[in-house]
Amino acid sequence: MRFGLKVNAGTWDEARRWAGVAEGAGFDGLWTGDNMRNPRDPSVAVHDGLTLIAAWAATTTSIRVGTLIANAVFRRPTVLAKQTITLDHVSAGRFDLGIGSGLWPTDHAMAGVPFWSARERADRLAEFVGIVDRLLAGDTGDHNGPHYPYQDAATTPGPIQPHVPIIVAANGPRALAVVAEHGDGWVTFPGAATEEEFGPASVGRGSTLDRLCRERDRDPGTLRRILLAYGAITPWSSPDAFPRLVDRYREIGFTEIVCYAPKPEERAVFDEAVARLDGLRS
User: Fold this and answer.
1) What angle, 0 to 180 degrees and rounded to 10, lies between the N-to-C axes of helices 12-25 and 49-59?
2) CB within 8 Å of 247: residues ≥ 6 apart
3) CA 35 to mean position of chain CA atoms
4) Would you call 155 helix, strand, or coil by DSSP?
5) Half-sphere exposure (Cβ direction) of 278: Cα atoms closer than 13 Å
6) Which residues touch 2 (CB under 8 Å, ≥6 apart)?
7) Which of 9, 109, 171, 278 is most buried as measured by Cβ atoms within 10 A of its Cβ?
8) For 206, left (φ over 0), alpha (ψ -120 to 50), or beta?
9) How confident is the model over 232-252, as pLDDT tens digits?
10) Among 146, 125, 135, 34, which residue's Cα sits nearest to residue 79?
11) Confidence (pTM)
């Protein structure tokens, strides 16, 4: 089991402090989101996700940094591929790229992008992720797809990592097919699906994802399965909440858990829990 900390900081001082905490505690990954604004309350401070990742990449030394998730609503795949390569260089090969089709109407509204139907959202995700995957692999041929056509692409320099990990946020069958086709990992969160739906190979979306991998001659076991502990999940509510969370979702089939940074009143429980991270890995 791997562990990550997701930080949506309102200030750089806060972001820098949590980066030091995460790296010092032995978290495997340090993550942030990618929204134009807070979707519920515009007074809540939100910084640009990839800019924050660049700052973390330059000021940490060992922890992996990444986006959960880079938002396709207001990003072009060619631009994101270029940004990914730069972040890979700044981090000395420690960048993980999470991609999703967006969730919030506020991102569409602020970016001036009409809200997509479910069909268009799935179509765009497939084309978007395919382009990023292709460009990061060095394939710069012209693309004439319906949503993101481009010509005369170049990826110089290339990434430092032989393959930058791509994590796809997906729940519907067509989006899960994108995971199976292009993803190194899959991320979801409770509320997007029930435990039965996103569980292990015997049930639900876990079994759908396994089937889609096998249809592509891919071993489902090669796929990272990441739970974003979000919403009703409260890992820092009590000293035994986080160990229970780890046991529960390991049994379901997840290989990584990403939790949000604690609130001030949760900090003591957080410190106690993360002191035992290594003992929870297996």
Assistant:
1) 50
2) none
3) 13
4) coil
5) 4
6) 28, 29, 255, 256, 257, 281
7) 9
8) alpha
9) 889 999 999 999 999 999 998
10) 135
11) 0.94
Do the Cβ atoms of 132 and 99 come closer than 8 Å? yes
**Contact yes or no for 238/269 (Cβ under 8 A):** yes
Distance linking the first and last C-alpha atoms of the chain: 6
In 91-152, alpha helices (H): 105-111, 118-136
Residues 204-237 pLDDT 10s: 556 889 999 999 999 999 999 999 998 788 999 9
Distance (Å, whole) CA 195 – CA 178: 21
CA–CA distance, 267 with 83 (Å, rounded to integer):
34
Cα within 13 Å of Cα(80), Cβ side: 28
Written in H, E and C, the secondary structure of 195-224 is: CCCCCCCCCHHHHHHHHHHHHCCCCHHHCE
Query: Do the Cβ atoms of 145 and 134 come closer than 8 Å?
Result: no
Beta-ladder partners of 168: 99, 186
Neighbour count for residue 186 (Cβ, 10 Å): 26
Angle (CA) 109 5 253, round 5°: 95
